[in-house]
Amino acid sequence: MNVKQNPWLFFALGVCALIVLPFLFMEGMFADGLLYAAVSRNYNAGIGSFWEMSFSSTIHTSFHEQPPLLFFLQGFFFRALGDSFYTERFYDLLMFLLCLFLLLRIWRLFSKESGWLVVVSWLLMPTVSFAFINNLEEATMTVFVLAAFVHLIRALHLKQKPMLHLFVAGVWLVLAGMTKGVQGLFLIAAPAFWFLCLRDVSFWETVKRSVWLVLPLLLFSAFVFYYEPAYRSFEAYFASRFGKTFSGILNTSDSRFFLLNALVQQLLLPLAFCLLLYFIFRKRLKNTTGWKTHSGLILFLLACGFSGILPLMVTLEQRTFYLVTGLPFLALAAGVWLIPQVRELRYETQMRGGLRGAMVVSGFGLWFIAAVLTVVFAGKPKRDADFIHDINLVAQEIGKNKTLVVDDKLYNNWGMTNYAMRFHQLAFTTSLESEWVVSLGAKQDSSLLASEQNKNLRLLRLYKRVPLKK
Predict the structure, then answer these.
(1) Domain spans of the chain?
(2) For residue 332, what pLDDT is reported?
(3) Of 76, 54, 75, residue with least CA distance to 63
(4) Average pLDDT score over residue span 78-102
(5) Higher confidence at residue 85 or residue 53?
(6) Does residue 445 register a pLDDT over 80?
(7) Helix/strand/coil (H/E/C) assignment for every residue in the chain
(8) Residue 288: what pLDDT?
(9) Among 330, 221, 336, 210, residue whose Cα is nearest residue 266
(10) Band (453; pLDDT cuts 50, 70, 90)
(11) How confident is the model at residue 1 (pLDDT cuts 50, 70, 90)?
């Protein structure tokens, strides 16, 4: 990238670095990310298999809460980098860089203008950086979805070997589905959206395109049906995940409109930024926006984005980060809408050397600050500091690969359970089958006949069971 020719893109990438890097390498993660890292680590260590992953000897001994592809891929990082605190972090960094690359690659298929507005709009949605910083499956799924979209645009927009690119797009969507199930397949509807929004092909051509896009999924479904380990794995996945979701066991919200409310909050910053850019050049461009010449394409992008969001409202299991896979398409729609404004800003920057120099200097400043903060914060806890301190001391006291008897509070705290397994292979149980007992706060049950160990713990209490006297 030529910094002088693309100062705004360089500045936007500096913003990305500042938002993501310092927090990516801090200790402590959201519970789901710790769970996925623990399963990936176990897979690399030979615990479980591709079609039957495992979390611990006491919880999810056969792990079928999600399809296996993420754990398989992340397992390679554990093989290459070892069981390091930074292993899943470098994996997430790679996923983030791939998403950036693919997002800009898609943009270049639409326009020759710099894609900085798309990048900034995407990163200003807070849940995007949250997904990459916390090792969530949506980060990996987004890579596969964007890779599929590259081929969809080549087939639908550029009409370059349509059937071949549609088939390849279908393969990428299968990989997205292998990462987090049916949520990754939403772009299956892309040919229909293109027909409805742009009307440049016939209905029967749209049907033919849809068949080629769905064909890899049909072939993969046939493989799963006839290959028993894969069949058992997906049978267990659908029974576990869909059974819990539609029975209400996994409900995380009180309203089916939770995701819409969350989406509005995610769009506040990027929308304000885009409106600012629109109004700055409104008089000069006489209210011109990309809508006048690209309304069909904008509607298509919006349809693709919302198709990855709205179907998730069918249940009450809704979380803000479920939006992540659909958000890149909303950022792309914003970019197409403001193509004239971005073009005008580029001309303005080229004409005013001082502005170009300021953007270059600001970009280097952002990169420098991001690098310094990353080094300063690396390894420091960004959440659960007391628990991380305590469970590390517990592991030093009793060793790794142990089973601990815990109270209900600790057993039901997934963040703590997952951290203990990920970094120390400490399995939690509520049945009395270990000489070591851990509780949150004071000992709850005197019948355990345990003596307290290690007085330096902040949050936990560690006890060693005392054998009964004969």
Answers:
(1) 7-374, 385-465
(2) 96
(3) 54
(4) 95
(5) 53
(6) no
(7) CCCCCCHHHHHHHHHHHHHHHHHHCCECCCHHHHHHHHHHHHHHCCCCECCEECCCCCCCCCECCCCCHHHHHHHHHHHHHCCCCCHHHHHHHHHHHHHHHHHHHHHHHHCCCCCHHHHHHHHCCHHHHHHHHCCCHHHHHHHHHHHHHHHHHHHHCCCCCHHHHHHHHHHHHHHHHHHHHHHHHHHHHHHHHHHHHHCCCCHHHHHHHHHHHHHHHHHHHHHHHHCHHHHHHHHHHHHHHHHHHHHCCCCCCCCCCHHHHHHHHHHHHHHHHHHHHHHHCHHHHCCCCCHHHHHHHHHHHHHHHHHCCHHHHHCCCCCHHHHCCCHHHHHHHHHHHCHHHHHHHHHHHHHCHHHHHHHHHHHHHHHHHHHHHHHHHCCCECCCHHHHHHHHHHHHHHCCCCEEEECHHHHCCHHHHHHHHHHHCCEEECCCCCCEEEEECCCCCHHHCEEEECCCCCCEEEEEECCCCC
(8) 67
(9) 330
(10) low
(11) low
